[in-house]
Amino acid sequence: MFEVVVVGAGPSGIGIAIILKKMGINFTVIERNEIGSSFLKWPKQMKLLTPSFFSNTFRMIDLNAISFDTSPALTLQTEHPSGHEYAAYLKKLADHFELPVQTWTNVDSVTKTKEGFVINTDKGNIETQILVWSGGEFQYPKDNTFPGSEHCIHNSLITNWDEVQGDEFLVVGGYESGMDTAINLAERKKRVLIIDKENLLESEDIDPSRTISPYTKDRLRRANANNTIEFHTGRVIKVEKNQDEYTVYTEQKKIPSKTKPILATGFAGSLSLIKELFDWEEGKAQLNSYDESTKSPGLYVTGPLLQQHDMIFCFIYKFQQRFAVVANHIAIKLSKDVASVVEEYKKEGMYLDNLSSIEDKCAC
Fold this sequence. Notes:
Elements: E1 2-7, H1 11-23, E2 27-30, H2 37-40, H3 72-76, H4 83-96, E3 101-102, E4 107-112, E5 117-121, E6 124-133, E7 153-154, E8 168-172, H5 176-187, E9 191-196, H6 214-223, E10 229-233, E11 236-242, E12 245-250, E13 254-257, E14 262-263, E15 280-281, E16 284-285, E17 299-301, E18 307-308, E19 311-312, H7 316-319, H8 323-333, H9 339-347
Helix pairs in contact: 1-8, 5-6
């Protein structure tokens, strides 16, 4: 039996695995495909929104780093890594820290036991005292959000925007993925109508998890110089298909399209695979202050699926701050003396344990 099993070898899985390795904990990482597989599935042109920069010397961690002693900017020599580039960074870290990662191992189910957890995989059962769920989002798209969704294509299924055929497109969803879809189409001389229930470009929210990032706004201004991207504010009710044409119905109007509408409706996430191990409230898995399930003690959540105190941790620079908090609580359960490792993470500014002290404030 392992002391800890980490499910998922993306940034959160590799990030917490590095700390567990430094703490001397007996663990393994299991990954359904290969390290960084979600990033490898990104469209060829997609890049990280947050910039990477050489700032570690001044104890300001690279926003895309998952360990204080690494920097994607240095490793990859680029400011906004592509999916393939970031996956290469993750693989390099796994090799450098000699992490025990079992790839191509798919989790079928998880059972809570008196001793811990039994993880049923296609390679056999794995027993562990503690389970850290670090599964991601990108491989679990929300593609059934309204009647007729089956007539659309989710943007996560498009691997190369250069190969998209057609001149005019409807994009359902106006958050980051919708904007990225529209920008890529406009850059290829396509006309685009973005449909969303609200116009996030007018939002004054300063949390990039709830609004459009400055990087995307810069890209949008460049791509839309000829006004090829338009916006319609309204909630989509349904989509109908008649032969080779489509109609998107919103609360205000019906909009015809000769091309398949593109869904930029976000992602359900992998917690749905183990939903019975959590208490749920308003669609959120209930966790204690250490990101541990309130229903299944010993089960922790890390990464973009984490939500706490009405905070959304879907950016790397956010959830990187919680790795050491989770690892420290695990070490306490296992009666491990890891004070020196935890202190190092605190010193390097990578230990955010008081979420109630965080406020969205900006002077200008």
